[in-house]
Design a protein that fits this description.
The chain is built from 5 helices and 3 strands, in the order βααββααα. It is mainly alpha-helical. It is elongated, with a radius of gyration of 27 Å. The N and C termini lie far apart (69 Å).
Length: 151
């Protein structure tokens, strides 16, 4: 748990869903008691708690802890400064997500903002799907005229 370890010196994060506090401690180069303290200081850090208050961190939280560590240990931020920096980043991310959702919503409407779907476009899309499903694959046998299945 050397706080002087650089970001590049940290081990790769394995592909798993949950990590114990001990695993995260090793992956991030931070002692468990520091992780518990950071949970109180950074509202974005909320590990799942299970039996006996055991903490289980998800992949995005491990990445967040590494970012917090980088801000504090490598860039020299205070806890308050790191919290403000993360709040700025998260609020920018939320704004970008809202803007993207608004664009998608506008694209689905006629541009009148009332949420009416462009039925002509939708009908064309559905017809293309029906036509595609109705096409025979190369080498597919002809169906009998009476609709009986071949055996």
């Amino acid at each position: 748990m050397d706080p002087n370890r650089k970001k590049a010196d940290l081990p790769p994060i394995p592909a798993k869903r949950y990590f114990t506090i001990g695993e995260v401690s090793e992956l991030c180069g931070v002692k468990p008691h520091v992780l518990r303290y950071w949970e109180q200081e950074f509202t974005q850090l909320k590990p799942v708690k299970r039996r006996g208050n055991r903490r289980y961190y998800q992949h995005h939280e491990v990445l967040l802890i590494r970012r917090i560590r980088e801000l504090l240990y490598e860039e020299g931020f205070t806890i308050s400064g790191a919290r403000n920096r993360l709040d700025d980043v998260y609020s920018q991310g939320r704004e970008a997500a809202r803007a993207e959702a608004a664009e998608r919503s506008e694209a689905k409407t006629n541009g009148n903002g009332r949420g009416k779907v462009d039925l002509v476009f939708l009908r064309r899309e559905l017809q293309e799907i029906v036509d595609t499903l109705g096409e025979k694959a190369p080498g597919e046998p002809e169906e009998p005229a009476n609709g009986a299945a071949l055996h």
